[in-house]
Amino acid sequence: MKQYSLTIQGLVQGVGFRPFVYREALAHGIRGWVKNTPQGVIIKAQGEHSEAFVNALRTHLPPNARIDSMEISLLEGEVYTDFTIRESVVGEGGVTIPLDRALCPACEAEMDDPHNRRYAYPFINCTDCGPRYTILHTPPYDRVRTSMNTFGMCLACASEYTDPTSRCYHAQPISCPQCGPQLRFLNHQGNVLSGDPIDHAITMLKEGKIIALKGLGGFHLMCDATNDETVGELRRRKHRKAKPLAVMFGSLEQLETYVSINEVERNHITGSIKPIVIVDAKAGTSLSPQIAPHIQRLGVFLPYTPLHRLLCEQIDFPLVATSANISDEPIIVSSDALLHSLSHVVEGILDHNRPIVNALDDAVIQIAEDRVVMLRLGRGFAPHTFPLARSITQSILALGAHQKSAIALGDHTTMVLSGHIGDLGSIEADGYFDQTIETVLRWYQCTPCLLVHDLHPLYSSTRYAHHQPSDHYGVQHHYAHILACMAEYGLDETVLGFAFDGTGYAADGTLWGGEVMIATLHGYERIGHLKPFALLGGENAIKEPRRIALSLLFESYTLDEVIRLKSPTVEAFLPHEIRTLHHMWFKNINAPRSSSMGRLFDAVASLGGFIQTLEYEGQGGMMLEAFVKDSITEPFAFEVNDGIINLSPMVLEIIALEGDKTQIASRFIATVVAMIAHFVHRYPHLPIVIGGGVFQNHALMRRLYRRFGEGAFYAQQQTPINDGSIALGQLYYAIHN
Ligand SMILES: [Zn+2]
Ligand SMILES: [Zn+2]
Question: In the chain, what are the domains?
Answer without folding.
Answer: 3-85 (3.30.70.100), 183-352 (3.90.870.10), 371-492+720-736 (3.30.420.360), 529-686 (1.10.357.160)
